[in-house]
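#onboarding

Welcome to the new folks! Below is a worked example of what a typical request in this channel looks like: someone posts a single protein sequence, and someone else replies with the predicted structure as tokens. Don't worry about understanding the tokens yet, we'll cover that in week two.

Example request:
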Amino acid sequence: MKRIVLVVSCLFLSSCASIIQGTEQTVTITSTPEGANVIIDGTERGLTPLSVKLKKNKYDTIMIKKKGYRAKSMPLEKSYDGIALLNVFWDSSTTDMITGAAYQYEPSTYHITLSKSESEEEEK
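Example response:
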């Protein structure tokens, strides 16, 4: 009986992070001033404030641009999702590693403050 429970538990917990957390994560990006263009790994995604679903462990950099301000970029930080550890018992976490679900963007909210460009400040 214990073996049956163990087998059923392993099947239920297979690819834990993929099943429980999914392979995508919502990342929120805000800026001061608002209305800045958000570019993630070279692809324009919209204007701040922006919440965007990103495939986990795929993207590396956020860039924020707005006319009259200096562009600013920062890394999308990733951390290991502890739920993926449960998958070690089933397939050595290979499913979660392949799908990217073993990682998460941490933090999931970014606020970027832009500085006026020098040419804009000289105009005033």
